[in-house]
Amino acid sequence: MKNIVTEPRLIAELLTRGVDEIIDRDHLKKRLKSGDCLRVKLGIDPTSPNIHLGRSIPLLKLRDFQNLGHKIVLIIGDFTGTIGDTSDKDSERPMLSEAVIKDNLKTYIKQAAKIINIDEAEIHYNSKWLGELKYKEISNQANDFSLNEFISRDNIRRRLETGKRISLREVLYPLMQGYDSVEVKADVEIGGVDQRFNLLAGRHLQKTAGQDPQDLLTNPLIEGLDGRKMSSSFGNTVNLFDAPNEMFGKIMSLKDEFIIKYFTLLTRIESEVIAKYEKELKAGANPRDYKLILAGELVKMYHSAKEAEVAHEFFINTFSKKEIPSEEIAEFLPQDYTLGAVLLESALASSKSEIRRLLEQGGIKVDGQTVSDINLELKAGSILQRGKIKFVKIA
């Protein structure tokens, strides 16, 4: 068993950085100081194929606990993912098929391994126990909660007020997440601020099961590239599996107001250094310089220091010097050389409607020139560009 680290400075950092609320703070702080090995739980539903930087916030907090010697428990919600959590939604989330979930979670462990030490983590799939529950057991769990508690949540109340549908399935979701805590005997659970009700459900169900209730640690949510909450459904994400150049370019498009928040929540650069950056930005320093540091740090975290250097150089050459470094762009051999067909074949666009929107917005260039004709015939050697950071070279 690993030694548990109880250094006050590290415990203080654990309980403050990337933390919105702790229930019960005094209890958790006491246990951290005692040297007890805690079981720290995080659940992730594979509702999309990618883990994005928004989800890295609780994963980084898991790693913080892991670095202090505690046992981290990662639950992949292959059952809850089919049901759908609407804690952060203003409308009903559609149910997903088991096949979609199975396809989505293919690389989840590999993605999570970019942040946590998978070899020392405990991994579970919650279909193992949720798929076995019967009506009687579910009814006993539901008896711990009232409908008023569920509908008092802000997003649920708004939906009721506007006449939007709320399914009974949504009412059951917190029970499922809470029961996960019973099954793994969690001492601590981590989740976003939007998960507060679900996290509390775990405490209730643990008490009913005769377990000590878990302490809760909620983390803030992060804005995506368009300023809205980072979400796969919005398409505003930076994903852990994004290629280095793409990840770097996305971060460089970030709104200036979120630079310090990204440093604080998404990296582990020392807090004193981030405070220095914040002071310099307020004094009038160029935000671009700090986004270059941020982009490099994130690419280094999820790829390597060398790839961060290459991505930095690629960005400078492409966007600062207005060059198109064709030797660094992957070649693509299309079956059909018309613009619309190449965009679809190369996955630069996912549908004809998206292509039309991109062309209308001036988001497609060929050899550096904005184009608008979906039937434009491309030539071998041409550079096709979507937005600022996606390129293919026609073979």
Care to describe what's here?
This protein has 395 residues and is of the alpha/beta class. The protein folds into 3 domains: 8-219, Rossmann fold; 244-323, Tyrosyl-Transfer RNA Synthetase; 331-394, RNA-binding S4 domain (Structural Genomics Hypothetical 15.5 Kd Protein In mrcA-pckA Intergenic Region, Chain A), CATH 3.10.290.10. It is 46% helix and 11% strand. The chain has 19 helices and 11 strands. The chain has helices at residues 8-14, 25-34, 53-67, 80-83, 98-104, 108-112, 127-130, 135-142, 147-151, 154-161, 168-184, 196-208, 244-252, 259-266, 271-282, 287-302, 305-320, 339-345, 352-360, and strands at 21-23, 39-44, 71-76, 122-125, 188-192, 215-219, 331-332, 364-366, 369-370, 383-386, 390-394. A 6-stranded mixed β-sheet has the order 1-6-5-2-3-4, sandwiched between helices. A 5-stranded mixed β-sheet has the order 7-11-10-8-9, with no helix packed on it. Helix 12 (196-208) links the parallel strand 5 (188-192) and strand 6. Helix 13 (244-252) packs antiparallel against helix 16 (287-302). The longest helix is centred in the middle third of the chain and has 17 residues, at 168-184. The protein is globular. The termini are far apart.
For this structure, the CATH topology of the largest domain is Rossmann fold
- Categorize the overall geometry: globular
Characterize the largest beta sheet: strand count, sense, and whether it forms a barrel: 6 strands, mixed
Which whole number gives the mean pLDDT? 89
DSSP summary: helix tally: 19
Unreliably modeled segments: none
Rg (CA only): 23 Å
What is the number of independent domains?
A: 3
The CATH H-level superfamily of the largest domain is: HUPs
Task: Say how many strands there are.
Answer: 11
